[in-house]
Fold each of these.
Amino acid sequence: MGLQALRGTTDLLPDDLLRWSRVEHVARRLARLYGYQELRTPLIEDASLFLRSVGETTDIVQKEMFRFADRGGHEIVLRPEGTAAIVRAYLEHALHKTEGFVKWFYLGPMFRAERPQAGRYRQFHQYGVEAIGSSSAWVDVEVIVLCLAILRDCGVVKTTLWLSSMGCRDDQTQFAARLRLKLLPVRSKLCQTCQGRFDRNVFRVLDCKSPDCQAIVADLMASERGLRPGSFESLCESCLLHFDEVRQELRNAKIVFDDTKFFARGLDYYTRTVFEVRAEGLGAQDAVAAGGRYDHLVEDLGGPSVGAVGFAAGIERVLLAAGHQAQPLPAASRRGVYLAVTQSDLLGQGFQFLQQLRERGASGTMDYDSKSLKAQLREADKAHCRFVAILGASEMSQRAITLKDMEQGSQETIAFDAFVETLVQRTNASPSCH
Ligand code: ATP
Ligand code: MG
């Protein structure tokens, strides 16, 4: 039996990583630009963290968590999402006392036991931000603007922003009651899972992926416009005011959004603003990023009553969307030096040059297996090296190296004495991150 990576997991080979690290670089750069600092939390957490935050009746908790008992019998979970753990960290390090308001950014793998398909994996990767400690509508606006800016700089420009408000907890209780009332006559037509959800968490019906349930929900929303979350009738005065402020400031920031769509997020902790960004070209898995406000989560996990808002984007889907939208991230430019030696007794001299270059910060590599010069040139090209430095018998006798510039297609001879300095200068003059 050949060993293979588990279904729903992927190896990222160096070529893949070129594109990946560009997304990570864009995300980091913009997050910093907006004042968000990076943090990392562990990949494993106590299971109860997600039961208490994401919600016992959600798909994530009911069927998507990788959950196991450690040897001491503790229930451990491979984290399915970032927010809950970040709030845990905020409280564990008492940042509610020392900092109050924090703006954080994260990047890393998440795990969900889903049925793998295009754009849906069991280990996938997210970048995201969380602004914890404020209820201001301005923070919602900032988070949404940042979310779209990162997507745009990653080449995902054909997007639709769905925006809604779930209201506060009181609004949600009332809304759930009205929803139950309206769904009661069609309850038997809902899928098996939703029949169960009806009592325990009726919002989940709105999030159901079954076509039958989706059709029922669409009908209901068409006939009962007031039932839509974010509508005048489903929000109390202060939640409506908050939502109006978010909408107004987004308009002022020239952000186009659709607030007529009906959607529920797949996690229980959301209150007030929720949003999803859908990208063209992704087929059924078209959500690239999603987020919203979670004003009770800090308190629910044992902290003070403070507001918070954030989003998470799936890196795999960002890359898929960028590819489909014919705006793939530009190929990395050539960089570094390939040192080619034409006979094995020159390896020592070549290696010395290479080390001097590396010590001075110029990246370089060489072949240690006495391949032909042609093969070495091929390798240099594959490795996207900017320069090839050739060291052979005639170079040794002239004490000068042949230098090919692979970008310009030019060639020259440089004295041994000047070689390292010249290359350090030239590679510094055209730096680029892989
Ligand atoms: P979906 O409706 O597609 O299942 P979700 O609502 O479960 O998404 P969130 O939990 O909000 O997604 O996660 C935010 C983003 O993470 C999604 O918009 C998507 O880009 C990405 N994502 C979520 N689950 C997966 C997965 N299994 N594989 C790849 N990316 C994912
Ligand atoms: Mg999901």
Note: Residues 164 and 230 are 5 Å apart (CA to CA).
Amino acid sequence: MKIGALTGGGDCPGLNAVIRAVVRTNANRGGTTLGFLEGWRGLTEHNCIELTAEGTDDIISRGGTILGSSRTNPFKDATSVDNVIETIRSTELDALIAIGGDDTLGVAHRLNAEHGINTIGVPKTIDNDLSSTDVTFGFDTSINVVMEAVDRLRTTAESHRRVMVIETMGRHAGWITCFSGVSTAADYFLIPEEKPDLDHMCELLKQRRQAGKMYGIVIVSEGVELPQVDGFVTQDTEVDEFGHVKLGGVGEIIAELIEQRTGIETRVVTLGHLQRGGAPSAYDRVLGTRLGVHAARLAHEGRFGQMVSLRGTQITSVELSDAVGQMRTLEPEFMSEAREFFT
Ligand code: F6P
């Protein structure tokens, strides 16, 4: 069997573990694997490399993706879709494994449903916001990066008696913020799923200072909407090929507001792409490996139009059609538990 693999969308730690597992599982069954470079662009531009079990054996510890990634959307025009289909035909692929988030998997689904291409999806994103899977790999590494950063910021905040505002990624889901907030005993955190109560936040910071805690840690999701801003805070007016804006900058506004309303000196740190970089955690390596093994097995079983998924501790699969287009926001229970610490 000849399998093609690609990684699309924002990169995340654990992608190389999936690639390694797909290649090895396929090789164990006598198959060969082609890696398409830079997401769907590799298929529109016919750009691929052969991947071997020996050549990919030690990539598990590397962050990012050896294949490169992009936010290319072949469905933006008919020629690109034709090019993808032509590449699949001329490289004689029996199956195509797309490793990505909602956009990448959406393309895999459409290629399968509308053009009969044998696609299989593997869910990834640091945002942990994909429905039809309990956890996405990349998330664990990401929250550990945030946790370490906040632990470091705490010591300087304490020395200077400041409030430190930390802006996190995660788009419209508060998983990264909530998990890093709980794991660092942050004084307050703001997630996109909830209307921010800025009065309560400032009041609490003042109360804590009066009670003797002379510094504060506030974690803010990049996707939080503020009443004083029309919509989301974005870096510029550009959108990507899937129509997404570049979020970023809400932390600055929150920091200014805290300083004005409380009189406490406040600084802001935007963690940005640090949260996606570096070596994957053990959890993400294992999850990525398991998903890759099962994706290649699905290909050999001829079960296309599916996405591998984690349910509890089991790897299972779901229809790609059911998996895409539904964002999984932070489950309210996590915030309700977290709120015990900032009411
Ligand atoms: O979806 C993953 C993610 O890291 C988001 O949390 C973030 O908003 C976005 O990607 C950033 O994308 P880019 O790398 O294109 O700036």
Note: The chain has two domains: 2-137+280-323, 139-276.
Amino acid sequence: MKTIQWYVDKDVDNLMSNPQLDEAANLLKKNEVVAFPTETVYGLGANAKSDLAVAKIYEAKGRPSDNPLIVHIAELNQLEELVTFVPEKANLLINRFWPGPLTIILNREPNILSEKVTPGMDTVAIRMPDHPIALELIRKAQLPIAAPSANRSGKPSPTIAEHVLEDLNGQISGVVNGGDTGVGVESTVIDCTQEIPMILRPGGISKEEIENVVGEVFIDPSINEETPSRPKSPGMKYTHYAPDAPVYLVNGTFSFLQDLVNKKQREGLKVGVIATEETKKDYHADVVLACGRRSDLQSVAHSLYETLRTFNSKDVDIIYSETFPLEGIGLAIMNRLEKAAGHRWIHQNQ
Ligand code: TXA
Ligand code: MG
């Protein structure tokens, strides 16, 4: 299959009358899969009502079929058809954060969506992305769009169209190239089917921001365990985001990390370091990449997946990574780094 690439400038082009988005939307209506930018990462979209279309997502990604998909909508009135009921707290979150990087889990209205979107579940995950191209594409398709991140299963999520093509060229009908995404990590997933909502995946909207709107929220205890037990969000149990070389998270001083590098280099290994703009020049290793600025964790989230992907072209044997505070978006950053590292930590004081 030839993968079409449509270049669309979200800031300049008149999206409503954009013929390239029309073409992409028509393919979605014909149950083909099309990748598109959102404010978090690129999504791999398909008609959420069609078994055939949704099966193509799982196939292109090589995704385990027990891992449910997020359904993307562009208008609030699309929500009514998909869920049985919207509880008060979910409404508050929708009013405050949609469109935006918050995915809300609600009880699913039966027989509307393909069963493959929500394998074996009574619930469905829904979000309204805050990206003009995503919104216009969904409006034009006039469908709820199931869309996981547009990477091969296990790889870091794509934040530019080139990443999508790296993984899926020839396997999908097309990709709308709308440039760089913004947030860089995926949406926060929150289960609003219980009286006290529970965060199942940390992401673009922080726990603190959510608590300001609905008061107390739980956080799935498996999220921050070094060896997670049984996460409630099926996708959280799979290894993810991993570069080809093993990643180790280092909890210690700069010179402790540098000593680890020196030791491996003496053993003849090619060593990479995930640093920040502030610390990059201080390390001596084979490849040192700055992942944003430590003083601005949003910038770390923005560059994280690109940094992980870049290591694959550098051919290193082992990667040591700095770590970040578990506050605000730091919780999502550390959750993704933990997965990239397969929960391998090196603590200085042990
Ligand atoms: O930012 C995002 O959310 C991106 C963009 C493309 O919108 N999408 C994304 O989708 O990250 P995906 O499929 O890579 O991750 C969806 C996560 C998985 O961990 C999945 O298990 C969980 O949401 N999920 C989906 N439906 C669920 C449900 N009904 N109950 C619990 N978890 C659910
Ligand atoms: Mg994903």
Note: The longest helix spans residues 297-314.
